Amino acid sequence: MKKVSAAIAVLMATAGTAQAQSSGLTLYGVIDAALSFQTHANPGRDSIYGLQQGGEGFLSGSRFGFKGNEDLGGGWKAGFTLENGFLADTGKLDQQGQLFGRQAFVKIGHDRYGEIALGRQYTTGNTMMYYVDPLGVGAAPSNSWQVYLVGQRYDNAISYTGTYGPWQVIAEAALGEQAGHGSARSSMSLGVKYAQGPLTVIGDAQQTNDTQSRHARIYMGGAKLAVGNANLFANYVHSSRDAGFDSSNGGTDTASITSMASGSPTAAVGINSVFASQRRDDFYTVGANYRVTPAWLLTAALMQNFTRADNFSGSRSTLYGVADYSFSKRTDVYVAAVYERAHGGWSGLFGNTTTNAAAASGQALNGSNNQISALVGLRHLF
């Protein structure tokens, strides 16, 4: 941790010097902390009180980052992004303890032709989901579990981003870096966004390969429509995984695509579990927000996923509402309430300590079928 602290101190000092000389380097961040209450937190159906939910605020993951840009002339420009995620309740590093686990890439591009970036980056699926999700993809486990289907970030990634009028295109490939196996733990994806007036429409397709040549394929579509003071949101994700697909290579979540595998082999079963047979998931979100006044924003949404495999049929549903009050453009407070329910093969999902899902071993989950969460949060942007 001394080395980590020293690295941060050097970057902070560099940021201060560069700010004085030019506008090419920016320090930015978000801190989101929330008092939380959650029912059915263990197989005994006990409730839990704490700060944060899964180490996260409800609206945003806490972070700080550095962005640098340089004008090379003739429309060409270069830059970088280093973005750290941290847990506001403990101060620990997030994203498997990586210093810049959220983003770490360098880029070069042209105003007309688009840009190329190399390094750790968001998946095209996560980026496209941001445009059509009521919370821009939330942070807490109760409002962002779709990332276990879509994936959040690619390691070893090469991406191209181009904007052509109302169209944006992102093509991305992540190198698996496995000697003798060019496709192992690699990923490829393509995301497209159309934004014109009150309407935004997105589409995305991606494939990830594990070390055993098994595949996970994702297809996504969604839309956002502005109507007066309201925004309406809808998105759909279809996920198909070969039997036994596991991009984590045995539980180490540092594959080319993160938050898409089983996590630790000793962890309780979650929606991202590895299945012994081919697995298919169909995920939906419908929601809206409404600007009551310049300061008050109300948001509500329903998320639902249906999982199918051999001898397995289950679903998970989440209904949430948020009332957010902005003191300024940088500081807001919010109240959030969530109700979640699991059916069929996912029964017993909440607060379970089971390490083998029924889909893999026939062992039923030992948690509860429903869970209620309530949070009061404070968020500050800088």
TrEMBL record:
Alphabetical list of Pfam families matching this protein: Porin_4
Gene3D superfamilies xref list: Porin
Compartment list: Cell outer membrane
Membrane topology recorded in Swiss-Prot or TrEMBL: Multi-pass membrane protein
Major site of localization recorded for this protein: membrane
Signal sequence segment: 1-20
Domain Porin: from-to ranges: 7-341
This protein's UniProt keywords: Cell outer membrane, Ion transport, Membrane, Porin, Signal, Transmembrane, Transmembrane beta strand, Transport
Assembly with partners or alone: Homotrimer.
Designated name of the protein: Porin
Organism of derivation: Ralstonia soli
